Amino acid sequence: MGGGPEGRGSMEHEALGPLRPATTGEQVAHRLATAIALGEFSLGDRLPSERDLAALLQVSRESVRAALRRLAGSGLVEIRRGRGGGAFVRAEWGEASEGAVRSALLERWTEFEELFDYRRLVESLIARTAAERADDADRAAIAEALARFDAAATPGEAREHDVRLHAAVARATRNARLVGLHERLLSEVSLGVSAEPYTWAIYEEAKPHHHALAEAIARGDGDAAARIAGHHFAITEDALRRLAERVRPPGTP
To answer: Looking at the record, which segments are called Disordered (predicted)?
Structure first.
C-alpha cells in the first residue's frame, strides 16, 4: 500500500465510510452504541428503521438485525413488535458500551482529529459563501429553521431542526458540491447516522451560535459567518472528545 499519495488517498477515512462485510454486525452495533452514548439518539427515541440504517451504513438488513439483537441483549435498546414497533433507546450506557466506544472512536482517533479539522475548514467556507450569496428566500429559510430550533420541545426535535438549519445554510451557497460535502461530513462525524449529538446542554450552547450565524448571513458578513461556524462546529468535536476520554485507559495518550 505504501505511504505515498496514491496509497494514502485510497485509505483516507476508510474507517468512517461503509462498513466491511466481514464484521458488519458487530461494527454496526459498536457505531449505534457509540451514537447512543453521544446523544445522537436520546432515551425513548426510536432508531431509524432497519431499511434506513442499512442504507445509511451501506450494509445488509441482516447485519442491522444482528446489531440490534446485540444492543437489545446488552440493554441499550428495546425491540417492540407490531404497528409502531421498532428499536427504542432504553439506556444511554450499558455493559457493552465501553468496548463499543473504544472500537468506534478510540482506535480511529487520529482519523477523527483530521476529520474535525477538515469539517471546520469546510463549514467555515460554507458559512462565508452563504453570507455572500444568500438571497431573500435563503434568508427566510434559515430564519424559519432557526425559529423551529428555538421552539424545540425535546432534544430530538432540536437535533432535527439543527440539521435543517445547517442544510439551509449550505443550500444558500448555490453550490451543489458544497451541499453534498456538508452532508457527507455530517455522516462521517456522526458515525454514519447523520445526526449531531444532542442534549439540553448542547442545545443551550448551540442556540446563541445559531442566532449569531443567521444574523451574520442576513447582513452579508462573510468573515463573521466563517468565524462563528468554525467555533460552532467544535461543539460536536467536544462531545466526541469527552466520550473518548471516558473510555481511554489511564496513562495512554
So the answer is: 1-21
| Domains identified in the chain, total number | 2
Establish if 224 belongs to a structural domain. Answer: yes
What confidence tens digit (pLDDT) does each residue in 160-218 have?
Answer: 999 999 999 999 999 999 999 999 999 999 888 777 888 889 999 999 999 999 999 99
Three-state DSSP at 152 gives coil
CA atoms within 13 A on the CB side of 231: 14
The enclosing domain of 68 has a CATH number of 1.10.10.10
| Domain coverage including residue 118 | 109-247
pLDDT digits (tens, 9 = 90+) for 14-50: 444 554 544 788 989 999 999 999 988 888 999 999 9
18 contacts: CB under 8 Å, gap ≥ 6: 57, 58, 59
Same domain assignment for residues 117 and 190? yes
User: Phi then psi for 46, rounded to 5 degrees?
Assistant: -90, 130
Strand residues in 28-156 grouped as ranges (E): 77-80, 86-89
